[in-house]
Amino acid sequence: MRVDKRKLYHLDWYLIINGLALFAIGLMNLISATSSFYSGSYSFIIKQLVAFCVGVILIGVIINVDYRSIASRSHVVYFIVLATVVLVLVWGMAAGGARRWISIFGISLQPSEFIKPVLVLLLAGILHEKKREKALLGPGDIVVPFVWTLLPFILILLQPDLGTGLIILLVALVMLWFVGMKKSTYAILIAVGTFLPLIAWRFVLKPYQKQRIYTFLNIDADPLGVGYHTKQAMIAVGSGKFFGKGYMQGTQHKLQFIPEHHTDFIYTVFAEEWGFFGSIIFFLLFITFIRRCLRISQDAYDDLGSIIAFGLATIIFLQFAINVLMAIHLAPVVGIPLPFISYGGSSLISVLVSVGLLLNINMRRYMF
């Protein structure tokens, strides 16, 4: 494949270096988080590096194809990914009471992670004409986008995976807001949003999901049961104090007090070992990365690129914010990975695909 030197010249190296810094921190953090699992084993690290290499290859492919061409074919990719989500419900691997993974040639994949950037591409392709015309979305205009969103949302809830389901629903809502809606549309969404949680509580949420919400509202109701792990996560973050206990010196995760401390609760490992000072640097890296994504959205050549970039920035922001808030008991516990940091090949590849699309959009604003 011939590489256009103009594309390399216009690569957003700020975004690349920022992303590499976050991944490097995540890899170091993962080494510490998994050090208590198997003495001398680096299987988690190797798998994460393999996923990173796959993601980098995909970035190389993505930046060589016009994002408008990719968006025009997003329906095909959407149905392929949706089919794998259905396949998970039938033949997927069960773990922790959920069926979210499928094994292909011995490699475990979580298809719901890939639906995030694909859905953004699909919705952007539908909405960009309205944005270009500066026409506000009426109630009828949001029906089709919501149908495309609710299909994977319902399938993902059946796994069950409330966290990922909420992310794609929130991203769709934010993208509609970004394009612009009429007051009547807002009124309908507010009305639906008022009754939907009640319906979900009665007919959708599993008992353990309801218990997590109860625990969030009153952590001391069951301090030795469901609330125990949340308290341990808070203790881990607080015990880091200002400068932390030092790299590889965290005790809460090494003694297995914190569940899923290499995935959903990965931030607790970092906060315990690097403290408040380290967390500030950690947050600044995420904030600057997301700000750069929004800058790409602002400077995009066309409205299609702008909406795609904004949607991808929203995914990364929501996952970052909810994951950290969950770890410090400011949000209910849901299964949401921390971008670049949490262990998980599917999540990392999904984030790197998003990075590839962002680089693609930024490059082509110079090339039309």
Walk me through the topology.
Layout: H1 5-9, H2 13-34, H3 43-62, H4 67-72, H5 74-91, E1 93-95, E2 98-104, E3 107-109, H6 111-133, H7 143-157, H8 162-179, H9 183-204, H10 207-217, H11 226-239, H12 266-299, H13 303-327, H14 345-364
Antiparallel strand pairs: 1-2, 2-3
Helix pairs in contact: 2-3, 2-12, 3-14, 5-6, 5-7, 6-7, 6-8, 6-13, 6-14, 7-8, 8-13, 11-12, 12-13, 12-14, 13-14
What would you call the structural class? mainly alpha
Radius of gyration: 21 Å
Mean pLDDT: 89
Number of domains: 2
Q: Which strand order do you get reading across the main beta sheet? A: 1-2-3
- First-to-last CA distance: 21 Å
- Secondary-structure element series: HHHHHEEEHHHHHHHHH
The dominant shape is: globular
Strand coverage percent: under 5%
Which residues form runs of ≥5 with pLDDT under 50?
A: none
